[in-house]
Amino acid sequence: MEFLHLNPPSPTIQLLKFTTHSHCGCPLGVYSGLPRHVWDPDRTTFMIVPGKRPATGQPSWVRTMAQELLARGQENVLVVDWLILPDMKLAEAAEQIGTKLSQIIQRLLVGRCLDPFAPVFSEANNSVYLDYKDGQYVDVIHSNFNPTEPMPALGFSSPLGHVDFYIGTGFQLPGCPRGLFNREKYLLCSHHRAHQIYTSSIQASCHHLAFPCQSVADFQQAKCTLCSLPGLNSCPEMGYDITWLPSSRPLPFQPMAAFLTITSAPPYCVTPLLLELNLGEILSVEAKLYIQLTGNAVKTSTMSVSGHHMTEFATNNVYQFMISADSDGDFHTLSLKFSTQRLLYLEIRKRRISIHHLLLSYLPKGRRIAYRAWNTTAVENQRVEVVLEK
User: Fold this and answer.
1) Helices marked H in the chain — which ranges?
2) Interacting residues of 92 by C-beta distance below 8 A, sequence separation 6+
3) R_g of the chain, CA atoms, integer Å
4) CA distance 191 to 188
5) pLDDT one-digit tens code per residue, 148-195
6) CA 264 – CA 175 distance, rounded (Å)
7) Which of 188, 359, 311, 194 has its CA nearest to residue 260?
8) Would you call 68 helix, strand, or coil by DSSP?
9) Which of 141, 134, 164, 142 is nearest to 250 (CA)?
10) Angle, CA 261 vertex, CA 278 and CA 301 arms, to 5°
11) Which of 27, 139, 258, 290 is the most exposed place for a label (fewest CB within 10 A)?
12) Closest by alpha carbon to 26, among 69, 53, 63, 57?
């Protein structure tokens, strides 16, 4: 026996314990005096709670996440399996399931919430979903907080935890389909990224650094490059590893939203960089800026660093852009292109962009300047190779 597979007469819950000896979970009855070889109360307990599912469908990602946790040496890995009547309202059912679960746990210490389901719970009473008042540390991964047309956002957009991690633009995340050729994957891909990223982070050697910020727009415009806040001395890190947290309880910092981007494939980590352009005397030009970094054994993908809209580049101004490189290494060349909507064939009519000084720094801000270049001239709609100096 493993996951429940028959429609119950009332909301039903069972605990499954996963071990390294079996790919399947075994039902676990919780009672006082459980032997320590079954469950050790002195060790960290991971409790995976999937969302609503049909009786005929098993959440395969849950099994994958459980096995990844076991591979990291975690012994208390439990899955909360639950089913409700097909016609029962989800918010009502969640309250009943939550009551049953609280009777088992008694006190929840740490909560990890993966893109909570907005269409049902966004208007529900806050007693039926997890928030920062429910544990010593509650973090939330928001991966689908904006609509994926024609569907509304499947995830919450409002903050819930001590730290709310917002990924990318909240829809059509890297690696997700751009069209409806595969309708189900197109609509669900960003929502599913939350559990995929967390599962990947269990064994990953890289880090998902996030930056406290007020909005996606501010993050993209490099207005949030510091991580030193009252009670917080390092950048929040999304995923399994919470060693970055201050040791004191209650946590000494206020609930915050933190933003980051990801790559298209596991382990989804990026290298955050800050690009600063100090322009010289130029004619004003509206353009999108694309860059690519190249090293001896590494090359990033071409990145649009100025966002979806045109940016006006004007004389003697300084511009900063957040760079999320999908590769890291010893870079020696930066390729950049100012893409305008002007279709010009005569070279003499094309505008020149004079870059007096270019800086490329690792983030968070305050770390060393990694690379720089001086006195570069770019031509609109043409790539220029900039040699970087350390």
Assistant:
1) 60-71, 90-105, 118-121, 183-203, 216-220
2) none
3) 24
4) 5
5) 777 788 888 889 999 999 999 898 899 998 877 777 888 889 999 999
6) 4
7) 194
8) helix
9) 134
10) 70
11) 27
12) 63
